[in-house]
Amino acid sequence: MGNNKISAFPSQMIPDKEKNQEWCSDMIDAIAGHIYSESSIWEENVYEDIRNYGIYNGQWATDDYKYLTEQYGFAQPARLVNYPIITPKVDLLLGEELRRPLDMKVVTINKDAALRKEDYKIRLTLKKYTDDMIKDVSQKVGFNPKTILDGMPIPEDIDKYMEYTYKEAIEEVAQDGLNYLMQKYSFREIFKSGFRDLLVTGKEFYKIYVKNGDPYIRRVDPRAVAYDTNTDSDFLDEAQWVGEERWLSPNEILDEFRDQLTKEDLDFINEMMHVTGTDDYKSYNSSMDWIRWSQGEGSRIRVLHCEWKSIKAMKYKISENKYDPERPFYKQLPDGYKKKKGDTIRSKYIDDIWVGTKIGGQVLVDCRRRPNQVRSVDDPGSAQLSYVGYIKNNTTGKRASMIDMLKNVQFLYNIVMYHIELALARSGGKAVVYDVSQLPTNLGMDMQTVLYHLKTDGIIPINSKDEGGQVSNFNQFSQVDFTLSQSVQQLINLKMMLEDMAGQISGVTKQREGAVEQYEYVGNVQRSVLQSATITESWFYAHGEVKKRCLLRMCELMKIAWAQGKKASMVFGDGASKILNVFPDIAFNDYGIFVGDAGRDDAMRQSITQLSQAALSSGQITLLDIIKVFKADTMTEAERVLEQGLDAAKKLSQEQQAQQQEAMQMQAQQEEMSFQRETQLKQMDNEAKIQVAQIQSETDLAVAEINDEQKRDVADMKEKLSFIKQKEKSGNAQANASGRTNDPEALEKIKDKISE
Questions:
Q1: CA neighbours within 13 Å on the CB side: how many for 379?
Q2: HSE of 222 in the Cβ direction (CA atoms, 13 Å)?
Q3: What is the pTM of this model?
Q4: What tens digit of pLDDT does each residue of 123-139 get?
Q5: Is 24 exposed, middle or buried (0-12, 13-18, 19+ CB in 10 A)?
Q6: 507-561: pLDDT as tens digits
Q7: How far apart are alpha carbons 113 and 90 in whole angstroms?
Q8: Which of 291, 361, 518, 668 is the most exposed place for a label (fewest CB within 10 A)?
């Protein structure tokens, strides 16, 4: 446009009742003035963006080379062709971005969530150290005491569990919700298009809002976005205002804004439909500021959608928080609230986002306070625009893209290739300078016949005599060299130098593209690739930061869009499914998005792959662990898999060592028992021998005593027998005298006794 005057922005401190349609229209006009004024660089940026996308798509303005292709009013015998050296480098970075996993973790970051996590960690620690005591008590008292800690799982390493594994239920829900949105709306494709915008134009923009009851993300064409250049930040969401320009047909306008258009608005749009003009961004005139016309599209009307940060005064009732006196409760009061006795009321100014759209510079629609404004639980006064984006090197509103850095190299490269083609066109081999007066016409030959003999016989017939028989002055034939000169090799060397220069400037070297020469050492190639990756990492970092902000905005917007809950089905790539069940408590938390460093993770992944193979060979992990590492979407997941595998291997090794120690202890015990048995047997043997000796001694003594006693008995019996015999003799004499006889049986018994 280039003819609008810059007007001051209307005051944002006015009461809400004064923020009417007129105020909104003035605000949009002020933004339009800053966008389309003669001092604005926005239209220049748009022109360069269009040109950059043309270069990326292999399109080049031939007028830029006209001074080469036409000389002195004549066309040169060569065609100017674009040989793209930029596009493959941009596409390579796009491919690398697609290979990078989106390691995303949702956590609650508000103070209440931090207190809940700390409380849970304390409870885990308490239970871990009281389990044994509870067991002892239960054994002693005869019953199991019930505590609030019953049923709480206790991990082996509490710190590691809290860092890597633990998630609040609300975090799990938010994580599932974000995964659901990423799957439903193809975030990877959207972010790929945005990254291409960044490489081509130096800008990437997104709009995040509620659509059909879900948080929604839309990639915005950077050529259509104007923004506040007074901010020092490179991020679009920190700007004070943003304008998005669209060129819509009248029918498209009717479809989108039909319910908001009056009869006067429709008449105005109908009138604009019949205006014709040019679609050149650089050639608008005063009557064509909001209209363009093209042969193929017909009339198109400029539709400017604006968003800006305003200010709103809010009244809050303050009440005491007995759990945290330093953080009192703030209750927002409705408009017209009358203060009651004892009330403590405080006014706070908060961010207030407004939106509005102008059609054709005149028709105002959709002017209102923006619904679904995301606010922090800990900082409810802040609000953000629905646009998220990044402008590389946003110091003066200018941007710098990879195309900008390489376009001059591309320009020179095409010139060099043009001169090479021109040299090829001029090449004619070696030519003979032939004097036509020497044609042997007397032999009936013309020039075609001479050329025939030259080709077939390799000779050039001449006739040195004229028709009168006089010998003419014969000019020796000379040769002219029209073959390619040495300058072509110089052009080829220059071409190769430009290719190397493009790689050095962009960071996408030949080695990174896979063009490795046979003479290059592996170590040199690896260092070159590493250096190349370091140069381009700033692009990936900026893109990663934008993705992080987008995902965080989506996560925060879930608190509003799903305030009443949400249920949906999720299907994963391996065929597994999961039910998304969002409960209303999601609205009472703030969330943070932690995204892994994809560049560092990619290098680590390669290292882990090599180390995993070594760990598999040494038995530290299993083949299943390696498969899980390869399938892991994030480095955090891969790290967790390896950690679990190493812990399992360590536990197994400890169990094996324990078993070995137990076996050694059992063997030692068996050896000790065997030794003890041998000792006992020896001791028993000695004791038995002693006992046998004692018994033998006692037996010998007893036998001796028995023999002595028997000897005494025999002597005694002999003595008795002798006495009996003497008695018998004397008795016989008496018996004979008295007429009696002795008992013979008694005498025999006495004799037997004596013989024994």
A1: 6
A2: 30
A3: 0.70
A4: 777 777 676 666 666 66
A5: buried
A6: 888 877 776 666 555 566 667 767 777 888 889 999 999 999 999 888 888 888 8
A7: 43
A8: 518
Distances (CA, A) of 306 to 224, 360, 383: 12, 14, 16
d(CA 288, CA 360): 10
Q: For the range 277-281, what are the long-range contacts, defined as Cβ-Cβ under 8 Å and sequence gap of 24 or more?
A: 281/43, 281/46, 281/47, 281/50
Q: What is the phi-psi region of residue 142: left when phi exceeds 0, alpha when psi lies from -120 to 50, beta otherwise? A: left
| pLDDT value of residue 276 | 55
Q: Are the beta carbons of 549 and 374 closer than 8 angstroms?
A: no
Could you tell me which residues are beta bridge partners of residue 303?
246, 359
With contact defined as beta carbons under 8 Å apart, do 467 and 440 qualify? no
Q: Kindly state the helix (H) or strand (E) to which residue 278 belongs, with its residue range.
A: none
Helix (H) or strand (E) holding 308: strand 298-319
Domain map (residue ranges) of the chain: 428-483, 635-755
The answer to whether 389 and 549 are in contact (CB under 8 A) is no
Residue 140's CB is within 10 A of a number of other CB atoms, namely 8
Q: From CA 705, how far away is CA 572, in angstroms rounded? A: 106
CA atoms within 13 A on the CB side of 67: 2
- Distance, in Å, from the CA atom of 241 to the CA atom of 353, rounded to the nearest integer, reads 10
Cα–Cα dist 96/94, whole Å:
5
For residues 536 and 508, is the Cβ–Cβ distance under 8 A? yes
List pLDDT tens digits, range 702-750.
777 777 777 777 677 777 777 766 766 666 555 555 444 455 565 566 5
CA nearest to 205, candidates 237, 250, 168:
237
* Paired strand residues for 225: 244
* CB 170 within 8 Å of CB 585: yes
616's tokens: 């598999």
